[in-house]
Structure formats: C-alpha cells, structure tokens
C-alpha cells in the first residue's frame, strides 16, 4: 500500500511545468470566451444600428434584432453552462491536484456535476481518500515501529543488565560461596531463556505481521483433532496440579481448514497465559468445543483473577501486560496473546475475550467450517 501511495505521489510531481503550461492555455481560452462575448454583442448591436441607419427599413431591422437577440441568448446559455459545468470544476480540480502534489491528501472537490467531469471529480475524490488512508497507514506503521523498538530495548535491557551484573560479580570474586554462585548461574540461565523466547516470539510475530509465515493448511475434522490436542494439554497441566476439563458439545462432523501446528500454538498461548496469571490455588481451566452459525468455536475458560474492563480492549496488543508486578516471577514477553490473535485471523477466524474480575476469563476462538 505504501509503495502504491509513493508511486501515485511521484506521478503528481512529474511534468509539473508542462501541466501548468496546459492550464495557462486553458485559462486563456476561458478569458477569451468570458470577455470576448460582450465585445461580440456590442459589435452585433453596432451592425444592427448601422442597418437601421442605412436601410431605414423598420421591418428588416426588427427581423435582424430578433435574430441577433435569439442568437445571443443561445450563446449566453451555452457560455453559462460551459462556465458552471467545465471551467469552474476544472479550476477546483486543478487546485486540488496542486494540493496533493504538495503532499496534502486531505482535499476534496465539492462540486456536483452530472457530466464526464462529475465522473472525473468522483474518481479524484476517491483517489484522494485512498491516498489519505495510505498516509495514515504509513504513519501508523512508523509509530508501531518506534513503539516496537522502544519495547524491545526495554525488555532486553533488564535481563542483559542482570546477566552482566552477576557475571561481573562472579568474575571479580565478590561471590565466595558455591551456593551463591549456583544461584547466580541459575538466574543467568533463566534470563537467557527469557531472551531466547522473546527473540523467537518477535521473529514469529514479525513474520505474521509481514504475512511471510508459511502455513500448512489441511481440511481437518475438528473433533478428533481437538481430542488428541486436549489429551496433551491435560497431561501437562495435571502434572502441574492444575485442574483441566474438556467438553465436546459438537454433535456432528465438521471440517475446518487449518494448520495443525499454528492453531495448537494459539491455544497453547491462551492456556499458558491463564496459567501465568492464575496465581492462586485450585486453578481450573476448561476448554469447550461448540458449533454456532457455521463457525467452530473453541472456548477456553479459567477461574483466575480475571481482567478488568478498562484493560480488555488492549489485551491483544503486543507487549501489553496486565500487571507488570505479577510478570516479574515468570517469563512473559507480552506477545503471546498478540501472536494467538494473528494466527487465528490468518485462518480467517476471530478471537474474542470476556472476563469478570475475581471470577475468571473466557477466550473464544471462532473458525469457519469447510462447506
């Protein structure tokens, strides 16, 4: 989109002097018609006066007067239409084109005509609107780029500084006991794992954002796929003393076109997020499979602390963390839910969230079925 905007912007700057020259000719013709007609009218009146003076025939003079009057009325009507249907719209269009050539895309030609110029003006307004939207997208991408760099710098600076401090302490002999050395090495190892995860998530998210991630789509019957997947999650979560249940509420076969690995990753990110933030005893996670309005719905519920209403609109933003204090004890890159959203949308689906504070949250993945 940005490339097309740049190309169109360059086109407006090409041959600018030549376009100005054509417009000067156009204005010259316009002035000739505007000021030439009164002179012609005076000339005709002079001829009429001379005819009356020389011929002296009142009937002939009246005939010529009526003829000239009708001709002038027709000419004036034609000139009025020419002025309002061509010259004025052309002037406004030229002024708008000059504004776009200067980089001002917030322009619109407010002139309603029903001829070919009306079609041209409508097309111009549509083009100007597209250029304006492209400019907004460009500015948004630039803002996102700056935010991304700032977030990456912040998220990498803390673990790197921690690693550097512990290594220097060990190197300079400030740590005497082996127990403390092992503790520091464990922290260093934890921070390196976090940085690797952050880099992997960033790499995946950037490929998703640029639409360069390869997907291996298959038409898969959703019920057996979910049953196998839920068995894996059940084993893993129960090992961590987390209650897990899966409910299949679909009565018939439905096929969904999906990438097994990517949908699994999206679900894993959501469940992982519930585990990270559900820092209370007796954490329970429930996954349900439903079919509604030609959509397969995967509901992921938890009985965690929930998400406050003011934070729900930002939950899928990259690097967004609900509570920075609660993320210090575990490795949270702030990209998990953003990646889940991108993965689901790449399948033509949608992801939503609802939550009640102190009662839990419910994430719903909706995927279209194959017909």
TrEMBL record:
<keyword id="KW-0812">Transmembrane</keyword>
<dbReference type="GO" id="GO:0004721">
    <property type="term" value="F:phosphoprotein phosphatase activity"/>
</dbReference>
<dbReference type="InterPro" id="IPR003660">
    <property type="entry name" value="HAMP_dom"/>
</dbReference>
<keyword id="KW-0472">Membrane</keyword>
<dbReference type="InterPro" id="IPR050351">
    <property type="entry name" value="BphY/WalK/GraS-like"/>
</dbReference>
<dbReference type="InterPro" id="IPR036097">
    <property type="entry name" value="HisK_dim/P_sf"/>
</dbReference>
<keyword id="KW-0808">Transferase</keyword>
<dbReference type="Pfam" id="PF00512">
    <property type="entry name" value="HisKA"/>
</dbReference>
<dbReference type="GO" id="GO:0000155">
    <property type="term" value="F:phosphorelay sensor kinase activity"/>
</dbReference>
<feature type="domain" description="Histidine kinase">
    <location>
        <begin position="151"/>
        <end position="371"/>
    </location>
</feature>
<keyword id="KW-0597">Phosphoprotein</keyword>
<dbReference type="GO" id="GO:0016036">
    <property type="term" value="P:cellular response to phosphate starvation"/>
</dbReference>
<dbReference type="GO" id="GO:0005886">
    <property type="term" value="C:plasma membrane"/>
</dbReference>
<feature type="transmembrane region" description="Helical">
    <location>
        <begin position="62"/>
        <end position="80"/>
    </location>
</feature>
<keyword id="KW-1133">Transmembrane helix</keyword>
<dbReference type="Pfam" id="PF00672">
    <property type="entry name" value="HAMP"/>
</dbReference>
<keyword id="KW-0418">Kinase</keyword>
<feature type="transmembrane region" description="Helical">
    <location>
        <begin position="39"/>
        <end position="56"/>
    </location>
</feature>
<feature type="domain" description="HAMP">
    <location>
        <begin position="84"/>
        <end position="136"/>
    </location>
</feature>
<dbReference type="InterPro" id="IPR036890">
    <property type="entry name" value="HATPase_C_sf"/>
</dbReference>
<dbReference type="InterPro" id="IPR003661">
    <property type="entry name" value="HisK_dim/P_dom"/>
</dbReference>
<keyword id="KW-0902">Two-component regulatory system</keyword>
<dbReference type="InterPro" id="IPR003594">
    <property type="entry name" value="HATPase_dom"/>
</dbReference>
<protein>
    <recommendedName>
        <fullName>histidine kinase</fullName>
        <ecNumber>2.7.13.3</ecNumber>
    </recommendedName>
</protein>
<dbReference type="InterPro" id="IPR005467">
    <property type="entry name" value="His_kinase_dom"/>
</dbReference>
<dbReference type="Pfam" id="PF02518">
    <property type="entry name" value="HATPase_c"/>
</dbReference>
<dbReference type="InterPro" id="IPR004358">
    <property type="entry name" value="Sig_transdc_His_kin-like_C"/>
</dbReference>
């Amino acid at each position: 989109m940005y490339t097309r905007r740049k190309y169109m912007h360059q086109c407006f700057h090409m041959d600018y002097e030549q376009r100005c020259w054509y417009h000067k000719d156009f204005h010259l013709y316009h002035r000739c018609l505007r000021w030439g007609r009164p002179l012609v009218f005076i000339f005709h009146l002079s001829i009429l006066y001379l005819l009356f003076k020389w011929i002296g025939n009142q009937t002939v003079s009246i005939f010529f007067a009526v003829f000239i009057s009708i001709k002038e009325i027709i000419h004036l009507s034609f000139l009025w239409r020419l002025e309002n249907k061509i010259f004025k719209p052309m002037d406004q269009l030229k002024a708008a084109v000059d504004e776009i050539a200067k980089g001002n895309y917030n322009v619109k030609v407010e002139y309603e005509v029903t001829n070919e110029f009306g079609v041209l003006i409508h097309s111009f307004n549509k083009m100007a609107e597209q250029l304006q939207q492209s400019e907004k997208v460009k500015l948004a991408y630039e803002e996102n780029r700056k935010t991304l760099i700032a977030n990456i710098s912040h998220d990498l600076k803390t673990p790197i500084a921690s690693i550097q401090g512990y290594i220097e302490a060990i190197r300079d002999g400030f740590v005497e006991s082996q127990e403390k050395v092992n503790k520091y090495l464990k922290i260093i190892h934890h921070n390196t794992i976090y940085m690797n995860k952050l880099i992997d998530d960033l790499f995946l998210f950037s490929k998703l954002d640029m639409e360069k991630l390869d997907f291996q789509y298959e038409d898969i019957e959703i019920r057996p796929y979910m049953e196998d997947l839920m068995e894996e999650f059940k084993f893993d979560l129960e090992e961590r003393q987390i209650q897990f249940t899966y409910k299949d509420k679909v009565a018939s076969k439905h096929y969904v076109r999906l990438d097994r690995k990517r949908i699994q990753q999206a679900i894993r990110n959501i469940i992982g997020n519930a585990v990270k933030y559900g820092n209370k005893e007796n954490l329970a996670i429930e996954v349900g499979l439903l079919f509604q309005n030609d959509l397969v719905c995967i509901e992921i519920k938890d009985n965690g602390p929930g998400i406050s209403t003011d934070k729900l609109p930002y939950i899928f933003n990259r690097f967004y963390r609900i509570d920075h204090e609660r993320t210090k004890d575990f490795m949270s890159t702030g990209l998990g839910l953003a990646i889940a959203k991108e993965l689901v949308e790449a399948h033509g689906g949608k992801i939503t969230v609802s939550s009640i504070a102190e009662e839990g949250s419910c994430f719903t993945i909706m995927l279209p079925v194959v017909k």
